[in-house]
Design a protein that fits this description.
296 residues; 2 strands; single chain; globular; two-stranded antiparallel sheet; mainly alpha; 76% helix
Length: 296
């Protein structure tokens, strides 16, 4: 039988873990309640249909307009552009680190790669202004100083270490016997990577991509500095756009009076952003779950 001391220790650990879980649940519930309460007040003054499908966003200057599609468009430009850059490049970097780089070279490259994740986002924003945008001007002299392409590129650089590191860890977790079995059947390194390694880690690659997308959606400072703050519904990536997060920052700077419809609009945008992220994570988790089932 367990001694009284061991029972007390186990019960204490259980209560500590339960308390930790409850903190996350309560915090999530409070965020939902806060966003929901303020958003309801906003939608009492602005129709939901006009907010979701309106194509003109001008909440701070009369005449006011609260069509959120320009903000959604700006956010999608940043997210899709950054993911299109970071996912394939991060996957290639992970393959090189895991399968081609020597242990000594990897011991230098891996910390240097992860160091990118520790750079402040405001530094990335200035990097986009001072380097990425001038480089883009070589190819398109008419590009605006603040533009969606520059923001997407710099956010792609920011989330690349996350994808590369997670995928590298997933590749190295694959048992060596599986690789050796592929080589024993006559496969070369490329075939082992393509037909064995990537299918075996598909769920983890998907999870890394979902985390990267969530990071890209929530990025604020670098996007504000690189992409600007002009809310517009556009198909041109070389003009200034405004994302949902950068608008929230703009409203909460203190120039907007609390309680007004302009102030409440930030909560409505935050609620929409929360729902978009929630739906994306649900879809990502379902995809990861189905991938694991197929592998089993």
């Amino acid at each position: 039988m367990k001694s009284f001391k061991n029972l007390v220790i186990e019960k204490s650990i259980y209560l500590i873990l339960l308390f930790s879980v409850m903190i996350t649940l309560v915090t999530t519930a409070l965020v939902i309640v806060l966003l929901g309460k303020e958003s309801i007040e906003f939608f009492k003054q602005v129709p939901v249909f006009s907010f979701l499908f309106g194509t003109h966003w001008q909440p701070l200057i009369a005449p006011h307009s609260f069509g959120v599609l320009p903000l959604v468009c700006g956010t999608l430009w940043i997210v899709l552009g950054s993911v299109a850059i970071a996912v394939p490049v991060g996957l290639l970097v992970a393959v090189y680190l895991s399968e081609y780089a020597s242990d000594q070279l990897r011991s230098y490259l891996k910390p240097m790669l992860e160091l990118l994740a520790g750079i402040p986002t405001v530094v990335y924003g200035y990097f986009a202004l001072s380097f990425i945008t001038p480089v883009l001007k070589w190819f398109n002299p008419d590009i605006e100083i603040f533009n969606a392409a520059s923001g997407a590129i710099v956010v792609g650089i920011m989330i690349l270490p996350m994808i590369a590191s997670l995928c590298d860890d997933a590749f190295r977790a694959v048992p060596g016997s599986i690789r050796e079995g592929g080589y024993a059947l006559g496969a070369n390194t490329f075939e082992v990577i393509k037909d064995i390694l990537i299918p075996a880690t598909k769920s983890r690659i998907g999870a890394a991509s979902v985390l990267a997308i969530s990071r890209a959606i929530g990025e604020t400072m670098a996007v504000t500095l690189a992409a600007g703050a002009t809310a517009r519904l556009t198909a041109d990536p070389f003009v200034s756009v405004q994302t949902m997060t950068s608008y929230i920052v703009q409203v909460t700077m203190g120039d907007t009076p609390a309680g007004g419809v302009e102030y409440l609009s930030s909560f409505a945008v935050g609620t929409l952003l929360f729902l978009m992220t929630l739906i994306m994570n649900i879809i990502g988790n379902q995809w990861v779950f189905k991938s694991r089932i197929r592998l089993v």
